[in-house]
Design goal:
Blueprint: H1 3-8, H2 10-38, H3 44-47, H4 50-104
Helix pairs in contact: 2-4
Length: about 110
């Protein structure tokens, strides 16, 4: 297993994977919702029904908000974990040199 995967942790990678799958699922569902909404134009009774339009718009907004929230949390988590991993790698690479530098200054 690579060092990056060890530093990030398999649990966090699973969470990130789940969040991305959930976001993509919301994207697909919003497309299906839009196609269902567009079928309202074929029915003359539904064309001017404002309550149905508001209902469909509300659901579409909720799906978009859920999609955005999943993406935001996944991206923030990835950024945080990559910063933490880079700090760990830097500490591992700098520590031997900082010890030798301390001895050479005496």
């Amino acid at each position: 297993m690579s060092l990056t995967f060890k530093l990030l942790g398999l649990i966090f990678l699973g969470i990130i994977l789940f969040l991305n799958i959930a976001s993509n699922t919301a994207t697909v569902y919003s497309g299906l919702w839009l196609s269902s909404w567009s079928n309202d134009a074929l029915d003359p009774n539904k064309v001017n029904d404002t309550s149905l339009r508001n209902h469909r718009l509300t659901i579409y907004a909720v799906i978009g908000t859920i999609e955005s929230a999943f993406l935001l949390v996944a991206n923030v988590l990835v950024s945080y974990l990559l910063i933490r991993a880079s700090e760990t790698i830097t500490q591992q690479n700098v520590s031997p040199y900082s010890e030798s530098a301390r001895w050479s200054l005496r």
